[in-house]
Design brief:
By secondary structure, this protein is an alpha+beta fold. 46% of the residues lie in helices and 24% in strands. It has 4 helices and 4 strands. The longest helix has 17 residues, at 2-18.
Length: 96
């Protein structure tokens, strides 16, 4: 478990370094484990999947980034969406 926590923390730190800092939110996704949603200070975003909620929590803690309980409000508003995301969302709505 410690190896997975360390690997995820390293990936979180790499993301944070590339985006001027980062914040995270951890969400349980069933048997697959937990999703770590990351939002950079520059509005960039990404996610990682951990094999368990506990591992995800420990990785975020080890990385030292701010953790949010929910993905809404000011935290969600930091996400920058570009043309690619809008086109993709429209495609999903239109059955594409």
């Amino acid at each position: 478990m410690a190896d997975k926590v360390a690997k995820l923390a390293k990936q979180i730190n790499s993301f944070a370094k590339s985006h001027g800092g980062a914040e995270a939110q951890v969400a349980y996704i069933g048997e697959r484990g937990a999703r770590i949603a990351l939002v950079g200070e520059d509005g960039g975003w990404g996610d990682l999947v951990a094999p368990s909620f506990e591992i995800a929590e420990k990785a975020v803690e080890k990385a030292g980034v701010t953790r949010h309980e929910t993905f809404d409000g000011e935290f969600a508003a930091k996400v920058t969406t570009g043309a690619y995301e809008w086109k993709r969302m429209a495609g999903i709505q239109l059955g594409g």
